[in-house]
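Dear support,

Our group has been running a series of protein-ligand predictions, and this particular one with protoporphyrin IX containing FE is the one our PI (initials K.S.) wants archived with full inputs and outputs. We had some confusion internally about which version of the output was final, so please treat the block below as the authoritative record. The input we submitted was:
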Amino acid sequence: MVRAPKCPFDPPPELHGLQEQAPLARVRLWDGSTPWLVTRHAEQRTLLGDPRLSSDVRRPGYPLPSPARPTGSGSIGFILMDDPEHARLRRMVTAPFAIKRVEALRPVVQEIVDDLIEEMLAGPNPVDLVEAFALPVPSLVICHLLGVPYADHGLFQGHSRNLISRSVAIEERTASFRALTDYLDGLLATKAETPGGDLLSQLVERVANGELTRADAAGIGVLLLVAGHETTANMIALGTLALLEHPDQLALLRESTDPALVASAVEELLRYLNITHTGRRRAALEDIEIAGVTIRAGEGVIMANDIGNRDPSIFPEPGELDLTRDARRHVAFGFGVHQCLGQQLARVELQVVYSTLYRRLPALRCAVPLDEVPFKHDGQVYGVYELPVSF
Ligand code: HEM
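Confirmed final output from the archive:
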């Protein structure tokens, strides 16, 4: 399903129709399979919390988003695993993403944001906001946390981009996945020689203790590095564009010094933009009765969280961007056991960005008309490839 022309922030119009008719509907995918599409918020949360649905792409019926799995037989961390193995691996990296630990990083994030704005002020104008700001902020933060050298950003950003694009040939995506795995494996080897206080060094310790295989450690490294920068970068650039298109809301944010309004703006932009727009995908392991239908074992299920976040029974006037609404029940970070591990980190990054960028660059504006902005319709994560801005 494609978005309507001139409505780059809204889910495809067919989804509204499906949501009005029923909470679940059958849809046809590129391979002819007909999984269930879940469009209402309540049923999405219920199903995302149900252990009878599997995240394992090898299960019969799993609704693949494109012709092949880019990872081949490799492992991309625990995001595509089920409990108990998923929980065992996730637990090994939960501590650095807990709220208190992430709050302690806030000054580091602020310094990164301030430095990048200084560089923008000293550099060319107009500039591509993605390249100059949106990508470097979360990349620098995740490098700091994992112990990855930022000097390698060209390498890991390029391969991450290929990995999550549905229009890049499968051979190229597989090659990018291998390159990222080899890169992380090499870093783990370096950390084994000279450990630091970073997360990759902690993984090396677990490998040495026999708690983790080297391959699983590299897979977790790839997952954290890719998920840690691509998502937030898209929220920064697309969020900025959405605010520039809603000047009243941008003014509200720019003129407020209330941290509660900034926090609420972040939740509302997460809800409104829902950048993980290809839905949360699962395969049913057993028959599941829900909303008057039976999902049979072996059938695929897609929780379309973009339209779930526009469910009018939860969010009145869902098509309005309203930074003052309480949007905390959004499903932009998913729900259940796979709920985003990095959500507190993403929140801190976005709060620092949204409360700093527009105040420091009060004349910020898009340097091209909206219909010339290249949107990532082909990405598993929605956003913009470039955002030319002047300030
Ligand atoms: C605005 C930014 C972000 C958004 C919208 C986002 C969204 C999501 C969503 C929807 C999921 C659920 C996947 C599923 O149910 O299948 C997820 C999982 C995950 N995210 Fe994020 N994410 C963001 C930022 C981050 C950051 C900064 C990290 C840091 C490393 C991160 C790491 C992860 C990991 C490791 C998982 C897998 C969790 C699991 O399977 O247990 N994310 N994210």
